[in-house]
Amino acid sequence: MVDILHRIGVTTSPEQVYAALTTVDGLAGWWTEDTDGDGDVGGVLRFRFEPGGFDMKVLDARPKEFVLWEVVDGPEEWIGTRVRFDLSEADGFTIVRFRHEGWREPVEFMYHCSTKWATFLLSLKKLLETGAGDPAPRDVRISDWH
Length: 146
Description:
The chain is an alpha+beta fold. The protein has a single domain, classed as START domain (Alpha-D-Glucose-1,6-Bisphosphate, Chain A, domain 4). Helix content is about 25%, strand content about 40%. It contains three helices and seven strands. It has helices spanning about 15-20, 25-30, 110-130, and strands at about 1-10, 35, 45-50, 50-60, 65-75, 80-90, 95-105. Strands 1-7-6-5-4-3-2 form a seven-stranded antiparallel sheet. Strand 5 and strand 6 form a beta hairpin.
């Protein structure tokens, strides 16, 4: 198995980061504007993009600590993978450690997704620090997959 890993520091509280990861409005502010569903444990969040979308079941979520999703619908490479956000505090930052885990192999689409996750995590940082992120469809286009 192969994982995508990223880390960012955000100059807001863990509570604000957690809200951006667990509410439809928060998620729509940094990942994709076309977001709906239930961000509570056991709920399913639906994220839609121009070329398709993903459905994530919320497996676990603990305020100020972490959020864990499992991909239950979307591209074949994503089905069964998990997306995790771990939160901690250090030197005036909320640290977000991101992991998209469980890829069967490092296929071309994984390389693309790694870069896209990085751009969306910077969008999360921008949303929390300035009040406006860059969610799809206003995100950075990096290739034919967008």
